[in-house]
Design a protein that fits this description.
The complex is a heterotrimer. By secondary structure, chain B is mainly α. Chain B is 69% helix and 0% strand. Chain B contains six helices and no strands. Chain C starts with a helix and ends with a helix. The chains are: A mainly alpha, B mainly alpha, C mainly alpha.
Chain lengths: 138, 179, 457
């Protein structure tokens, strides 16, 4: 508890600094709003439609796979701190269960790679129907 | 004002707890009351972040940091992605819904449930000044030892569950591949 | 002098813990705040030197007035050059007073919140990094979860990016924010895995334990092998982890060659397209502060923390027949000036960043994803599992078997690599052709050299 005061103080300090930085320019700077200045920047062209459109599901897939792999590792962090200093018996059982655990991790990873979930190349994307027949050229 | 007559002694720990709990409560209320889904999600992020510090004050350091890693750092990012993916704006409500009977009934039921829980928990908590847990109660070492001795089976099952999650999410995203 | 410092420290230890905590936090944040302009100046000067330019060199040159009688005669009217060191400060002051253009279509609350959320993790990240062996002053909180705290806070950096992209209500910034957040979360995984190998080898998440572990004799050698320290970058697993961490660290700070969200020619400025004035500068500051802190993490975890070179001065001083005075002096210098060595390593890390920016072209997005998920993650995972196996074999069959395992692993990896190379002999280059439908080749424009020269002049 005592040690976490430092983190609390640092987090509080960082929050205060960030708030000051953001508000100070808003307070100090001049304000001359014109319609052209306050329009969305699109290289001088009037923007068409709202920008809050749907975006490709690939980003969503990356986020959810990140969560799953992240949680797999989270289970191991506490084990990493005890493995080296533990008794032989604990070491043996935990090492075997670690290997089983990692085998499912690797299985999941291989599946992800097998189905090209991270392939950003449009020709092999998740929805080939959208592109029609891929043209094979060499 | 005589501080000694208060049921709870004013200690620095109590001050920190009140600060953190206040922020957590305010952000939790914000989650419900903001009309904009993104702002609600941000309040939830703040709530989870402060909750981790509440865990720290209870000597549960591993739990607190896992709270930040998993919920604040990973799951809430996915929430934001989903909200942005669905393009949820502010909720549109009609003006004449104000006199809905559901609102007072809901508030009363909620208050009833809250008072029921509070009447069971608060009298026992009022005497506790400092957490009674030993210093290394929630340390990574303690969690690791317990996880790999008493809870080995659930631990392995969790890995299967996560594998199912990986396969399921990819199948959902790839659904249109095989018509 | 040293006694006076000791007395000061003893007095400091008696202050209330909350005051101590705030002072420790200030000792971390204020140097970062003051060093950020210096880092920007250093980057601009070094980059321009690498690109054969001059860079900012004017702001800060001044001449002392000739008529001031207070000054000694030698200084009157003398010119001083600061080599443009004040340029970033001048830019910062200017940015504070610039108009804060808030476009009409933005989500105002999130638009204000996003830069603050981008800067916040950069400052909060350094809480567990020790800058020297002074437990009272330097890790702001020497907690039992140091490395995990670092990972947790660095994962908050996604919010500043994704919300900045969302708030701008601009297609370019949304695209930049999405790309950047996918990049950040992808590389975070490999970063965690690379650190996991080190945590496993140390047996603790505490950063000070990691530094203490690196002060042990190299590879557990006895005898005169104890001269060298076991910096993790010098061990086989630590070397692989270090390289992975280095790549992930560059990707996490959105720096070249991973600066895809800021790919100017396709996305204008990525997620901060709509930001102006100090809000833009806050994003900028967050990037540089994160560079500083990530370099510090790299120095702590892989480069032996505050030690200057991987040599055990204490062992040398005790065991050498000559020069033990010199070695003893070096030992005390390592301890007393440790923050300077730490900052020196951080500057080396920053130089690495800038060098990368000057050397490598930007990656394509599919290349970036492919590197993160197909190279970095399996490499880090295998490395992590190899460390676990090594610890198990060393404990079960003795340390010689452990070393044997590393040799076997090295031979296996090398053979596999040669085998894969001999199988995969064909051209690995991707052929991408763009077929223009009914297009004509672009007409060749005749260029008159004289007219070009005229236009340039």
């Amino acid at each position: 508890m005592q040690a976490y005061l430092g983190i609390l103080a640092l987090v509080g300090l960082a929050a205060v600094i960030c708030a000051v930085m953001v508000t100070l320019s808003w307070v100090l700077g001049p304000k001359k709003v014109t319609p052209y200045k306050s329009s969305t920047y699109e290289c001088g062209v009037a923007p068409v439609g709202d920008s809050r459109e749907r975006f490709p599901i690939k980003f969503y897939l990356v986020a959810i796979l990140f969560i799953l792999f992240d949680i797999e590792v989270v289970f191991l962090w506490s084990w990493m701190t005890v493995f080296k200093h533990s008794s032989m018996e604990f070491m043996r059982t935990s090492f075997i269960s670690f290997l089983i655990y990692m085998s499912t991790f690797i299985l999941g990873y291989l599946y992800v790679i097998r189905v090209n979930a991270f392939d950003w190349d449009e020709t092999t994307s998740l929805e080939p129907a959208k592109l029609g027949e891929a043209v094979q050229e060499s | 004002m005589d501080l000694s007559k208060l049921p709870v002694k004013p200690t620095p720990e109590l001050g920190i707890f009140l600060l953190l709990a206040g922020i957590a409560m305010a952000s939790a209320v914000g989650v419900i009351f903001f009309r904009n889904a993104i702002r609600s999600a941000l309040c939830l992020v703040l709530n989870f972040f402060v909750l981790a510090f509440l865990y720290f004050t209870l000597n549960c350091e591993m739990l607190g940091i896992v709270q930040i890693v998993v919920y604040t750092g990973a799951i809430m990012v996915l929430f934001l992605f989903v909200i942005m993916l669905l393009n949820l704006g502010a909720i549109q409500t009609d003006k004449d819904e104000k006199l809905d009977i559901k609102l007072p009934v809901g508030i009363m039921l909620g208050l009833g449930l809250f008072s029921l829980i509070a009447s069971q928990i608060v009298p026992q908590m009022i005497k506790i000044q400092t957490p009674k847990a030993p210093d290394n109660f929630g340390s990574p070492q303690a969690v690791g030892n317990t996880l790999f001795s008493n809870y080995l089976y659930p631990f392995e099952i969790a890995s299967i569950l996560l594998l199912v999650g990986i396969v399921g999410s990819i199948l959902l995203a790839k659904r249109r591949l095989n018509p | 002098m040293i006694q006076w410092l000791q007395q000061l420290m003893e007095g400091f230890a008696k202050w209330p813990p909350i005051v101590q905590a705030v002072i420790r936090a200030l000792l971390l944040v204020l140097p970062i705040l003051t060093l950020v302009p210096g880092i920007i100046w250093y980057e601009r000067r070094l980059l321009s030197w690498m690109q054969d330019r001059i860079g900012p060199n004017r702001v800060g040159n001044f001449r002392l007035p000739a008529h001031w009688k207070i000054l000694p005669p030698g200084l009157r009217g003398r010119k001083f050059k600061l080599f443009g060191l004040l340029q970033p400060i001048a830019d910062g002051v200017k940015l504070f007073f610039k108009e804060d253009v808030t476009p009409a279509s933005v989500d105002r609350v999130i638009y204000f919140l996003a830069p603050a959320l981008a800067l916040f993790p950069a400052f909060a990240l350094g809480a567990t990094i020790p800058f020297g062996p002074y437990t009272l002053l330097t890790p702001v909180a020497d907690v039992n979860i140091g490395v995990l705290y670092m990972l947790a806070i660095s994962s908050l950096g996604v919010y500043g990016v994704v919300l900045g992209g969302y708030a701008g209500n601009n297609k370019y910034s949304l695209m930049g924010g999405l790309r950047s957040s996918a990049q950040l979360i992808s590389y975070e995984l490999s970063m965690g895995m690379s650190l996991a190998a080190i945590v496993l080898a140390t047996g603790s998440l505490r950063m000070t334990d990691m530094v203490a572990m690196q002060e042990q004799p190299l590879w557990g050698m006895g005898g005169y092998g104890q001269i060298f320290q076991n910096w993790f970058i010098l061990t086989p697993y630590g070397f692989i982890s270090g390289i992975i961490f280095l790549v992930c660290m560059v990707a996490e700070t959105n720096r070249a060659p991973f600066d895809l969200p800021e790919a100017e020619n396709e996305l204008i400025a990525g997620y901060h397209t709509e930001y102006s004035s100090m809000k833009f500068a806050v994003y900028f500051m967050g990037e540089y502060a994160a560079m500083f802190i990530f370099s510090a993490v790299f120095a702590t975890v892989f480069l032996g923390g505050w030690n200057i070179v991987p040599i055990n001065w204490g062992f040398l001083a005790d065991n050498s027949p000559v020069l033990n005075g010199l070695f003893g002096f070096m030992k005390s210098m390592t301890i007393y000036l440790s923050p300077i060595w730490m900052v020196g390593k951080i500057i080396a890390g920053l130089t690495f960043y800038i060098w990368l920016r000057a050397t490598l072209p930007r990656l394509r997005y599919d290349q970036l994803m492919s590197i993160g998920w197909r190279s970095m993650l399996p490499l880090a995972t295998l490395n992590f599992m190899a460390v676990a196996t090594w610890i198990f074999i060393s404990a079960r069959y003795g340390s010689a078997a452990g070393i044997g395992m590393w040799v076997v692993a090295g031979v296996v990896v090398f053979t596999l690599w040669r085998l894969l190379k001999s199988i995969d002999k064909g051209a690995d280059l991707e052929v991408r052709t763009v077929k223009m439908v009914g297009g004509k080749p672009a007409p060749v424009v005749e260029v008159d050299p004289e007219r070009v020269a005229e236009a340039v002049n």
